[in-house]
Amino acid sequence: MAMWVYWRLFLVGLGMLGRQRRDLILENVILRQQLAVWERSGRRPRLHRRDRQFWSVTARHWTPWRAHLQLVQPATVIGWHRLAWRRYWRWKSQGGRPGRTRIGPEIRTLIARLAAENPTWGVRRIAAELAVLGHPVSAATVQRYRGNRPPSPSWRAFLRLHVSEIWAADFFIAQTLPFRAFYVFVVIRHDRRRLMHWNVTRHPTQAWVWQQIREAT
């Protein structure tokens, strides 16, 4: 698997951690990556393709990336994105013409892997992800190599089939006459519109919310 795929999966996995812990881990990794570039390049950093891929993926999945970038200006990373998008749309506009360059086995493998690991992604989303990482291909090419899939049901059909398994949760604020705010947490079941659980607190915390979910289920 290509390095950028591992890095993207790592970023997605970190999203399940708390923000402070996630940010601390990412700051450490990003610092080490930039130090490695400086040690490899000397006084003037020379970025390889994998370095540009690293920062392209980071910028897509981590909002504070600009504050920790030292190698180049943030505008440079944004420029990589724009260039990738231009290449992608230029490739797409030329799709189907004779003499089109065939993609290599590595890209075909990446297309199949992205499709398998992200079953909710369509061909345009996969093509856009590849373009950002420097592999501009058309949506038709992605369709050709991602493997056969049955057509996805419509959103309405999905809800109709799974309505008995879908619950919804929400917060709303209730104010008393002395203008004191209370946070009300509710969980409902969609198929019967039945209230499954509710509770009230003045200070909602992550631990409190998780406790309400455990009690509801």
Descriptive overview:
With 217 residues, the chain is mainly alpha-helical. The chain folds into 2 domains: 3-145, no CATH class; 157-216, no CATH class. Helix content is 54%, strand content 12%. The protein has 9 helices and 3 strands; from the N terminus they run ααααααααβββα. Strands 1-2-3 form a 3-stranded antiparallel beta sheet, with helices on one face. Strand 2 and strand 3 form a beta hairpin. The longest helix is centred in the N-terminal third of the chain and has 23 residues, at 19-41. 12% of the residues are buried. The mean pLDDT is 80.
By DSSP (H or I, 4+ residues per run), the number of helices equals 9
Total count of strands: 3
Report the average pLDDT across residues.
Answer: 80
How much of the sequence lies in strands comes to: 5-15%
| Shape by Cα distribution | flat
Q: What class, by secondary structure content?
A: mainly alpha
Q: What is the string of helix and strand elements? A: HHHHHHHHEEEH
The radius of gyration is 23 Å
Query: What characterizes the major β-sheet?
Result: 3 strands, antiparallel
Please give the alpha-carbon distance between the first and last residues. 38 Å
Task: Specify the helix fraction band.
Answer: 40-55%
What is the strand arrangement across the widest sheet? 1-2-3
The count of domains is: 2
Q: pLDDT below 50 for ≥5 consecutive residues: which ranges?
A: none
